[in-house]
Amino acid sequence: MAKSKADEKILSYNDVVLRQSDLDILNGPNCLNDRIIEFYFSYVSSLFPSDNILLVPPSIAFWIKECPDPASVKDFMEPLHLSRRKLILLPINDNSDVCMAEGGSHWSLLAFDRNSNVFVHHDSSSGCMNEYHSKQVYKVTLPYIATNATYKECPDTPKQVNGYDCGVYVLAIARVICQWFANSGTQYADTLWFSHLEQVSPSAVSEMRNEILGLIKGLMAAPKSVA
């Protein structure tokens, strides 16, 4: 059976394969999917290359939250080397069905900063929709980071003004946190990155959607290297 145009592969970036349907998502008022978030996390990792920083792919964060077998969780955790990371970012989705790929309806971000020894949850919904899911990831992850870190909801998280930009807020906040950490984050354990969140406005989020779309198209147009 011939593939539909939506299934056509348009870009391979590191370990992420993007398809035409991903561009369609970015072009319209749609919630982001796992692939777009994984792609941008991979891109941000290339902007801030450091073994101290880890941006966890959505599929891994989801399995950490929902895996029923502790032994299997260990298999996922050990390659991440969480105990030596200084900054860990995990995308949180409200999907609880392991049989449903690309499920869920809301994204948020859980960030761990070792210098301040705290997990901070950033939820762009007005009612912190993902608090339960975020705490589940925190509880499972805690034994692997070799510390007794605390958990907090961030009251200063910028709030979305529509029902579909939660994933873009996750990406925008993740980029702000990585920039903060790379510049001077370890010097400000008390205040963390909170004052920098003012950069994440509704207009900036709208522009970021276009920015990611342009980034993908630019990578598509870039000449391929020959081995």
From TrEMBL:
Gene3D superfamilies: Adenoviral Proteinase, Chain A
Keywords: Hydrolase, Protease, Thiol protease
PROSITE patterns: ULP_PROTEASE
Name used for this protein in its record: Ubiquitin-like protease family profile domain-containing protein
Protein family membership: Belongs to the peptidase C48 family.
The organism's taxonomic lineage, starting at the top: Eukaryota, Viridiplantae, Streptophyta, Embryophyta, Tracheophyta
Domain Ubiquitin-like protease family profile: 16-177
GO biological process: protein deneddylation; proteolysis
Signal peptide annotation: none
Gene Ontology molecular functions: cysteine-type peptidase activity; deNEDDylase activity
InterPro entries registered for this protein in UniProt: Nep1/2-like, Papain-like_cys_pep_sf, Peptidase_C48_C
Native source organism of the sequence: Anisodus tanguticus
